[in-house]
């Protein structure tokens, strides 16, 4: 929702031209696209929770398949557009920038959650590093299509998001062993410091 306000400001800053965004229409469309399905899902879940726990439908596999289809169709829509006009050098630069941004966000959240006066546990830190830097295509693409509806270069401006999503999956896979070993060692160290000292016999 912040992007609805920030995006026109960035366009004005970098392009030097004014832009108008129909806020009422955008908020209503985002509400119907994102918020309403979430509310309906939470309501329905209360009534079929017991059935779901008994049957255990493969929601994980279904979610992965749906996400894969969204990524596939978005890639097709983006690169099938003849007006995309994206050269290889620009694509390499975008990939480098996206990876740099992702690494910077993860590093900053790690520093923030592990500072001296922080009350976060090592497990909290892992959740913060991975979850707070996550950006999903399932929300990002609908937002782009709503905010930039009718824009002829919609395919071009969706490229960074298309790269960001695989980048976070790749970086997450590479960092899991390191983060896991850090969390385990940190938890052991905290347990040792919290153990009461044995009384010294004289």
From TrEMBL:
Q: Which UniProt keywords apply?
A: Membrane, Signal, Transmembrane, Transmembrane helix
Where in the sequence is the signal peptide annotated?
Answer: 1-20
Transmembrane stretches in the record are 30-48, 60-80, 92-113, 125-148, 154-176
One Gene Ontology CC term in the entry:
plasma membrane
Domain of life of the source: Eukaryota
Alphabetical list of Gene3D superfamilies matching this protein: 1.20.1530.20
Cite the Pfam families for this sequence. Answer: SBF_like
In which family does this protein belong, per the annotation?
Belongs to the bile acid:sodium symporter (BASS) (TC 2.A.28) family.
Provide the protein name.
NTCP7 protein
> What gene name is listed for this protein?
Slc10a7
